Amino acid sequence: MNDRIILRITDLIGSPLCISAEDGQKVFEKLAPLIREGKKVDISFDRVTMLISLFLNAAIGQLYGSFNEEQIHSQVTITGLAEDDLDMLKRVEVNAKNYYANPKKYDQAWKIENDDEE
Q1: For labeling, which of 51, 62, 76, 105 is most exposed (least CB within 10 Å)?
Q2: What is the residue range of 9's domain?
Q3: Which residues, 6+ apart, have CB-to-CB distance to 28 below 8 Å?
């Protein structure tokens, strides 16, 4: 059982633009069950022309709320990202790990911040 599943982002979302949380959610919803089943997945960003952190937060960051870091890193491989996009992915992962380590604290801080702006 050494077969890897290739998840082509452009095929999954039907666009080279990875800019919406909804499209990121599609990736998460496809990826999470595969990880849960113990599958190894290559996420291919080949042919992606635009990528923003909002998309990555939904697609990849959310994984840290359901799986531990070792599980994600041992089962998921990311290919086809430029160096600056890899840096953005690393920031998304760090932020996700911090958030899921203490979501109540982050949610409370967000609520306080938004209440102050009204």
Answers
A1: 105
A2: 4-117
A3: 58, 59, 60, 62, 63
Read off the DSSP letter of residue 80: S
Q: Distance between CA atoms of 107 and 17, rounded to whole angstroms?
A: 29
Task: State the Cα angle at 43 between 14 and 64, rounded to 5°.
Answer: 110
| Domain count across the chain | 1
Q: Model-level pTM?
A: 0.87
pLDDT over 70 percentage in the chain: 96
Q: How far apart are CA 107 and CA 111, in angstroms?
A: 6
Dihedral angle computed from the Cα positions of residues 20, 23, 25 and 28, in that order, rounded to the nearest 10 degrees: -130
Cβ neighbors of 5 (< 8 A, separation 6 or more) are 34, 39, 40, 41, 42
Structure tokens belonging to residue 90? 């690393």
